[in-house]
Specification:
Elements: E1 2-6, E2 15-19, E3 29-39, H1 41-48, E4 57-58, E5 62-70, E6 82-86, E7 95-99, E8 104-105, H2 112-132, E9 140-143, H3 149-160, E10 164-169, H4 172-181, E11 185-188, H5 194-201, E12 207-212, H6 219-224, E13 226-234, H7 248-252, E14 257-259, H8 270-286, E15 293-298, H9 302-310, E16 317-321
Parallel strand pairs: 9-10, 9-12, 10-11, 12-13, 13-14, 15-16
Antiparallel strand pairs: 1-2, 1-4, 3-5, 3-7, 3-16, 5-6, 6-8
Helix pairs in contact: 2-3, 2-8
């Protein structure tokens, strides 16, 4: 079969589209024939070596398709069933072996592409809004990259929670996307200072929480946007890693909270996984959550997909099609 692997860490050019052996499922595992693969910034971090990984490494942690074979033992899924998964390394391939507890059945009415586009970023938005900082009606939240895949879903879920959402984007086109997702206010950070604009929009009070997936270029000003005892939620670093921080800064700026969460800690067992995924699928079925697929690329063009993602051009989810 074909897969996209890296034999050394680096830029998009290190990705190789090559032949590898078809994997065989062991006990408690299933082999999934992939029909769609999600492209995420975590793939970039793995490619660059920012996250630990043993070389050679098959990239990708999210995808969907049909169960092709099962290993020994009981299984919550059956051969031929449509399933989707997240946080399982090796998805940039035609097939993948996944622990069966991680496989989420795709309900009727949801396409495999839609399921593959929503699971990782949607569950991320779900835990951010429900558990990392549990938004309450009347809370004001600042969402960076509000027109991106995760940001657009987070805006919608935050609104479902009753929060007022201020989003930041880079272009007028992305501003329209953020507004269509439900953002109450949208700031073009390429045109104005987002810190000053947040303070103006909140009458100087600041926001209860900042959801920041950008990192290096937004972190410092994001702290200044928080009201006393506000929470800084750093869940990505698309612009680069944040510099080390003296904890005393959190004290002087209002007894702030800072957290750096990740999805695997919020989907620690099958019950939690199915609960989060189930909410997403129900909201999609009812029209309360819209999933925007920006572009699809053939699996062989994974390099171009990464260049598009790192160029901050995305207006929704990117998918690879094996």
């Amino acid at each position: 079969m074909k897969a996209v692997r890296v034999h050394q860490f680096g830029g998009p050019e290190v990705m190789a589209y090559q032949d590898v052996s078809v994997p065989e499922p062991g006990a408690g595992q299933a082999r999934v024939k992939l029909e769609a693969v999600g492209v995420n910034f975590t793939d970039v971090y793995h490619r660059k070596g920012m996250y630990p990984g043993q070389l050679p490494l098959t990239l990708g942690v999210e995808g969907g398709g049909r169960v092709e074979a099962l290993g020994p033992g009981e299984s919550p899924v059956k051969v031929g069933e449509r399933v989707v998964f997240a946080m399982q390394q090796g998805a940039y391939a035609q097939t993948i072996v996944v622990p069966t507890w991680k496989l989420v059945p795709i309900p009727e009415g949801v396409s495999t592409q839609e399921a593959s586009a929503v699971l990782l970023q949607g569950m991320t938005a779900h835990y951010l809004a429900h558990h990392t900082y549990p938004l309450q009606p009347g809370d004001v939240a600042l969402v960076h990259a509000a027109a991106g895949g995760a940001g657009g879903l987070l805006v919608q879920i935050a609104r479902l929670r009753g929060a007022r959402v201020i989003g930041t984007v880079s272009t007028p086109e992305k501003a329209e996307l953020a507004r269509s997702a439900g953002a109450d206010d949208v700031i073009l950070y390429s045109h104005v200072d987002f810190e000053q604009e947040v303070k103006r929009l909140t009458g100087g009070r600041g926001v209860a929480v900042v959801y920041d997936s950008v990192g290096k270029t937004t972190f410092e000003k994001s702290l200044n946007c928080l009201q006393p005892r506000g929470m800084m939620v750093l869940y990505g670093q698309s612009s680069g890693a944040v510099a080390p921080l003296d904890p005393q800064v959190l004290n002087t700026r209002g007894s702030l909270y800072l957290t750096r969460p990740m999805l695997s800690h919020y989907t620690r067992d099958r019950a939690e996984l199915l609960q989060r995924a189930g909410d997403l699928f129900r909201w999609m079925a009812s029209g309360q959550l819209r999933v925007r697929i920006d572009r699809t690329f053939p699996l062989s063009q994974a390099r171009q997909a990464h260049e598009y993602l790192e160029g901050r051009l995305t207006k929704g989810k990117l998918l690879l099609i094996p």
